Amino acid sequence: MVFVMAAGGTGGHVMPALAVARELRREGHEAVFVGTRRGLEARLAPAEGFRVEFIRSGGWQRVGPAQRVRTLVALPSGVLRAWLLLRRLSAAAVFSMGGYAAAPVCAAAWLRRVPVVVLEPNVAPGLVNRWTGRFAARILVNFPDTAALFDAARTEVAGMPVREEFFRLPPKTPGEWFEVLVTGGSQGSRTLNQAARESWPLFRQAGARVRMVLQTGPAAYPELAREFERSGMAGRVVPFLDDMPAAFAAADLVVSRAGAGAVAELAAAGKPAILVPFPYAADQHQLRNAEALVRAGAARMVEDRRLDGRRLFSEVMELAGRAGELEAMGRAVRRFARPDAARRAAAALLGAAQGRKRLDRESGLIKQ
Fold it and tell me: Which residues lie closer than 8 Å to 159 by C-beta, 6 or more apart?
């Protein structure tokens, strides 16, 4: 069977879908990604041996009027392209992570009666998943609080699919240096980059045994790399971390945005973190994710507007001297991890596909 993965745009959408696609491939099925040429799926899916088909789509929430007009203009052609693609592939089911890249595919699936399995990774569901959840065959959620927002009969707390490597990371033994990983995601974060830049002289002046790895995103990398070299700070600056599990393994503390993918990776690895929610995330979903971890004692949170170099320096130095708190945070965050999330999502897709075949046989669309 062929399954369509409607998961494009950011790493938070693509990475979990890749984990599910691997499970489907292990079971002898084919997974085809559908997205846009500017999304990370264009690079990451082929690197893992998965085919990518491209459609036109654009954002709707937190964009200007001009972008909304472009999205509306592109939507009909995107839906038509997705409709033809689902027919050509004889798609058994669609897996949706939500987001702008999933909207045309889910609309086409509804028109073609192709079952859709939705994974809502955040505490607060996004616009596309709220709409798709009305007709989806199965709705998988990452946080228990989210389940109450969908039809209970079709909803399951399945967790967020994460690469297996994160679950296999051993506990970090404290070393001579306190290792800090700062990452704003695949495109980087202006706030985190600026705070890291401002913190380097403070760590140097304090003589702190702190080593920092900063993932800047490609746009900010050249300038920050030059400044880091001049600062004398221990560590390295990179535009993108291809091996994030290895970066997590080396870190004593992670400073990160609070997207669902980042939160799930922290949980799988059992890493203490300082979360800085992106303030313009749709429906404030990053804030809700961070609050859920803070309530559980699994992370600290600093608002984006309050993070600067001095605040980053003070938070890191305080936690560096509190080994007990770091260990407690690591234990608490692991309670959010679900190692079988990818397998459960794959099983939901297979179940939805089999259910559709059964209905088609009963209605005479498929001969017995």
Answer: 142, 264, 337, 338, 340, 341, 344
Give rounded-to-5 percent helix, strand, coil for the chain.
50, 15, 35
Give this prediction's pTM.
0.78
Average pLDDT for the chain:
89
The percent of residues in the chain predicted with pLDDT above 90, rounded, is 67
**142-150 own/partner pairs: CB under 8 Å, 24+ apart:** 142/260, 142/264, 143/289, 143/292, 145/292, 146/120, 146/122, 149/125, 150/120, 150/125
Question: Does 65 have pLDDT greater than 90?
Answer: no
Domains of the chain, CATH where assigned: 2-162+339-362 (3.40.50.2000), 166-334 (3.40.50.2000)
pLDDT in tens, 258-283: 988 899 999 999 999 999 999 987 77
- The residues pairing with 119 across neighbouring beta strands, listed in sequence order, are 140
Sheet with 300-301: list strands edge to edge: 234-238, 210-215, 178-183, 253-256, 273-275, 300-301
- Mean pLDDT, residues 153-173 taken together: 91
